[in-house]
UniProtKB/TrEMBL annotation:
SMART domains per record: C1Q
InterPro entries: C1q_dom, Cerebellin_Synaptic_Org, Tumour_necrosis_fac-like_dom
UniProt keywords, alphabetically: Secreted, Signal
Subcellular location: Secreted
Pfam families: C1q
Any one biological process term the GO annotation gives: maintenance of synapse structure
Native species: Littorina saxatilis
Classification via Gene3D superfamilies: 2.60.120.40
Cellular component aspect of the GO annotation: extracellular region; synapse
Protein's name in the database: C1q domain-containing protein
Stretches assigned to the C1q domain: 6-149
Length: 152
């Protein structure tokens, strides 16, 4: 793609799980949102769950999730982080077993990313899965491009 077309392209995504509920197998797993609602220039990889920044700039990420349980007590702890392991934001979802309740949590973070840096959502711990389809989503968008060639 030539640079002029890339400049006009969408620099964002919104993805969800196609499976409902989405089981989380083990601590440390990267969540792979496999059903894109929008995915400009395929910046979010629906096979490995990683977003790659196309440009150096300020990005905004948002995730909203609902714990998938009807009668279990438990939790699901998530983090949005750079693939180098630097955490950007965490969310802790809890459920009580004595009532039917769907615990919902969300987080939003703005951060500077350099071109080629990567971000994903990872499971920190807990034993509950997440509701799928439109009930758990992950989004990201480029808000501001650094035009200064000296900014790295």
């Amino acid at each position: 793609m030539d640079q002029a077309k890339e400049e006009m392209g969408i620099k964002g995504f919104t993805v969800q799980f196609s499976q409902n509920p989405k089981n989380i197998e083990k601590r440390g797993d990267v969540l792979v949102f496999d059903s894109p609602l929008s995915n400009g220039n395929n910046l979010y990889d629906t096979k490995n769950g990683v977003f790659t920044a196309p440009r150096t700039g300020v990005y905004s990420f948002y995730m909203s999730g609902i714990v998938a349980t009807d009668d279990l007590s438990g939790r699901s702890d998530l983090v949005i982080e750079k693939t180098d392991g630097k955490p950007l934001q965490k969310v802790f979802l809890r459920s009580r077993g004595d009532i039917t309740v769907y615990s919902q949590g969300s987080f939003h973070v703005r951060c500077k990313l350099n071109r080629g840096e990567q971000v994903h959502v990872r499971h920190l711990g807990g034993d509950l899965g997440l509701k799928g389809e439109s009930e758990t989503t992950f989004s990201g968008v480029l808000e501001h491009v650094y035009a200064d060639p000296f900014v790295k």
